[in-house]
Amino acid sequence: MTRKTVTEQYPDAQPDLPPRTRGVIALFEENCTVCMLCARECPDWCIYIDSHKETVPAAVPGGRERSRNVLDRFAIDFSLCMYCGICIEVCPFDALFWSPEFEYAETDIRELTHERDKLREWMWTVPAPPALDPGAEEPKEIAAARKTAEKLASAQPGPEEGDA
Q1: DSSP assignments along the chain, one per residue
Q2: Residues 125, 25 contacting (CB under 8 angstroms)
Q3: What is the pLDDT, as a whole number, of residue 161?
Q4: Among 80, 106, 65, residue whose Cα is nearest residue 25
Q5: Among candidate residues 45, 35, 53, the one with its CA nearest the CA of residue 92
């Protein structure tokens, strides 16, 4: 109350957004396995996914054919979305991300259902993850991998001094 207020001139000057701003949900389509977890866990049921099964031929002769899901449609209705982030948290394959993009207003509410092409475009606005805290504990996976690599390196015989 004792400081003078500052008005941001929004259309002319873009706001300085915090690093974890929840703008819009971006889709990294290559990581999506059509597991439907995001759509099932969404409390608003605003995620629409369609897919079909495709048979992949055997990689080696005598092997068996595999089937995989192929993504046909991935859409999010932002007129229903409450930006809770549950879909991003439950995605086991890191296919959904928060993008700080916030300028996607539409004049018609039906245009707020964004298909996978539009969601893919926002993937390029997703900021890089923050650097790890230098004082943080090393992840267990990295520590285990390092111990295994050290054990393998010590088990291998080194070059003998007589060989040249």
Answers
A1: --SPP----TTTS-----TT---EEEE-GGG-----HHHHH-TT--EEEEEEEEEEPPSSTTPPPEEEEEEEEEEEETTT-----HHHHH-TT--EEEE-------SSGGGGEE-HHHHHHGGGGPPPPPPPPTTSPPPHHHHHHHHHHHHHHHHSPPPPTT--
A2: no
A3: 53
A4: 80
A5: 35
Mean pLDDT (the chain) is 88
Structure tokens at 80: 């229903």
Predicted confidence at residue 163, as pLDDT, reads: 53
- How far apart are alpha carbons 33 and 67 in whole angstroms? 12
Quote the tokens at residue 47: 């995620």
| pTM to 2 decimal places | 0.73
Nearest to 95 by CA among 74, 64, 112: 74
Rounded to an integer, what is the distance from CA 154 to the centroid of its chain?
38
Lowest mean pLDDT among 6-10, 42-46, 82-86, 115-119: 6-10
With tokens 């068996």, the residue in question is 64
Q: Write out the two tokens for 154.
A: 């010590």
